[in-house]
Design goal:
Length: 594
């Protein structure tokens, strides 16, 4: 009976959690064998029949060949092999003619494969790059049998380590071979020309001349040789070429190519570069402390995920708006756009199996999955407008549908402004005194500002004079630099003519000891004599008070006193770290003498 009651309670809890969730569990297949990332997922009406399909660029792990998969619902509709690993996938309209069926573009290696109605339509290849001249000369010598394969190997390894121009694929494959296989490889490939071609690292779409949803779009490619290319959607020619200081890995664009557009590129050097139309070089740069793992544009805010498990929000000019810390490592990111409610949010897939949805820094929703999330995609799937596609590390496929009654409460998550900030303040009514003061400020604003500036300058002058008096009287001299936190206090003892001078020196830092200090005395040699004008200070341990003693002998028999200046310096530096003025006491004239 107890076991039955416990199982009933667990079932009730599961039903209550499912009822309170904003998502419907449409499908879950842990053995779907889909291995990809967010850039290779795209939802599009590939046949123009209103039935949206899911196109996946599968990486093909465990020795399998990479392929393009097209899913309709939970089943695989079509599958075709790819010659290289996919880098990104996108759906775009190539023209204005009917029927308005979008094409599918898949970037793989140095090529972009374009499909229409799931049939190969066009293949765009990146232009070839000039090969390394030293590498070309070595292969020409090998062609004429002037060098053997071992010499070729040593020379190519030297070029790979020092040359700025990278080696071709042919040379890199040659260096990976065993010694027994190199000679056959050279004989097979020495007559072939050396080709060096860049590889596509990322891809996205940019509207051509209209912002409509069914308008033509250009393809924007990021390449391994630190360039961005904009392709014409009809002729597939290069419309624009832009250079970057790093290799782009994530792209976000806004605007239209023929009007004005803004492009953000996150690169491998840890920076994000902002480019505009007619700019060959980046206009703004956002420097990150770590590598980016995702880039999403939501409501004109660039949301960047970093390897420090943080989400950062930036403006297009590089100003940081907010930062949110994640409970686990960020594996993937994508945009959630609910057009019926005008909502744009950021989805972050974490290593602990969570999918967190943020609007700015406000947490809207948390979805828990049975495995770490590797890719996310939100949009219309089948005939459902708001569908979430999730793939997991083990190759699983999760499909969730957002309930039509679900509403994301902005600011109701764990992070964000408190609810009291949105409460309307009870502002009191304007009184007669307030109105008179406002009129006075309008009429005599210039005079009031001048009076305020005069009082401010007087306040600064009094503060400066008080500071100078404190330094001259040596009330409590403290070093002004944070690198050398020191405190000095001087005590004079005796009636004369010999006085005992004790300097109390203290290291006020919390944990760092200070070494290599000197104490120097500046005084009138006609009036006073000291055994040593300067001496070294021992190691100062933080928090301890070190008394440093010396004797001062008065040489005047007229009862005259003067100031002795104490300087604390660093060895090898002329500027003092700390200074103090000691007012010596006046002794009777009969007590003076040598």
């Amino acid at each position: 009976m107890a076991a039955a009651s416990s199982s009933d309670s667990e079932g009730d809890r599961a039903e209550s959690s499912e009822a309170s969730s904003k998502w419907l569990d449409a499908h879950y297949d842990p053995m779907a064998n889909i291995h990809t990332f967010s850039a290779c997922l795209v939802l599009a009406d590939l046949h123009g029949d209103g039935e949206y399909k899911l196109a996946v660029g599968d990486l093909g792990p465990s020795g399998r060949q990479p392929c393009l998969k097209v899913l309709k619902g939970p089943t695989v509709l079509a599958e075709s092999a790819l010659p290289a690993l996919p880098a990104a996938a996108a759906a775009f309209l190539m023209g204005q003619h009917e029927p308005r069926t979008p094409a599918l573009a898949l970037a793989s290696g140095p090529c972009v494969y374009v499909y229409k109605n799931l049939r190969p339509y066009f293949k765009f290849s990146l232009p070839q790059l000039p090969p390394n001249p030293l590498e070309q000369d070595l292969w020409n010598q090998a062609k004429e049998d002037q060098i053997d394969h071992l010499t070729l190997k040593e020379m190519l390894e030297g070029i790979r380590e020092k040359a700025e121009v990278p080696l071709s694929v042919q040379s890199l494959r040659f260096l990976q071979l065993e010694l027994s296989e190199m000679e056959a490889f050279v004989n097979q490939h020495k007559s072939k020309p050396i080709k060096r071609q860049a590889v596509i690292t990322t891809m996205t779409t940019l509207k051509k001349n209209m912002a409509d949803e069914d308008a033509m779009s250009c393809l924007v490619l990021g390449t391994e040789n630190k360039e961005l290319l904009v392709l014409d959607p009809e002729a597939f020619t290069i419309l624009a070429k832009m250079s970057l200081p790093g290799v782009p890995v994530f792209l976000e664009v806004s605007g239209q190519f023929d009007v004005a557009f803004r492009l953000a590129a996150a690169c491998r050097n840890g920076n994000i570069y902002i480019l505009r139309r007619d700019c060959k070089r980046p206009k703004y740069c956002i420097e990150l402390s770590t590598q980016p793992v995702g880039l999403v544009l939501a409501h004109k805010v660039l949301v960047v995920g970093s390897t420090q498990d943080n989400l950062h929000g930036f403006t297009h000019k590089g100003k940081r708006l907010w930062t949110v810390h994640m409970p686990a490592a960020i594996l993937t990111m994508n945009l959630l756009e609910q057009r019926s409610r005008g909502l744009q949010a950021v989805m972050a897939g974490l290593a602990n199996g969570e999918v967190r949805i943020y609007h700015d820094k406000a947490l809207l929703n948390v979805i828990r999955t049975p495995d770490a999330v590797t890719s996310l995609c939100f949009g219309r799937y089948g005939r459902e407008d708001n569908t979430l596609i999730v793939t997991t590390r083990g190759g699983g496929l999760i499909i969730k549908i957002l309930k039509r009654t679900a509403v994301f409460a902005e600011g109701a998550g764990e992070v964000g402004p408190p609810p009291a900030q949105a409460m309307k303040l009870n502002v009191p009514r304007k009184t007669r005194l307030y109105v008179d003061q406002t009129l006075r400020e309008r009429e005599a604003g210039t005079a009031m500002h001048r009076t305020f500036q005069t009082d401010l300058y007087l306040l600064r002058l009094r503060a400066a004079r008080a500071y100078v008096r404190a330094l001259e009287s040596s009330l409590n001299p403290v070093s002004a630099t944070a690198r050398e936190p020191l405190k000095l206090h001087a005590v004079v003892q005796g009636l004369g003519p010999t006085f005992k001078l004790t300097l109390h020196l203290q290291n006020t830092s919390t944990a760092r000891p200070i070494l290599g200090l000197l104490v120097c005395f500046l005084y009138n040699e006609v009036l006073y004599a000291l055994p040593r004008a300067f001496f070294k200070v021992p190691l100062l341990v933080p928090g301890l008070n070190y008394p440093l003693e010396t004797f001062v002998e008065s040489l005047s028999d007229k009862g005259i006193s003067d100031i002795i200046k104490v300087l604390v310096l660093r060895e090898g530096q002329s500027a003092p770290l700390l200074s103090a003025h000691i007012n010596m006491p006046v002794q009777p004239a009969q007590a003076c003498g040598k």
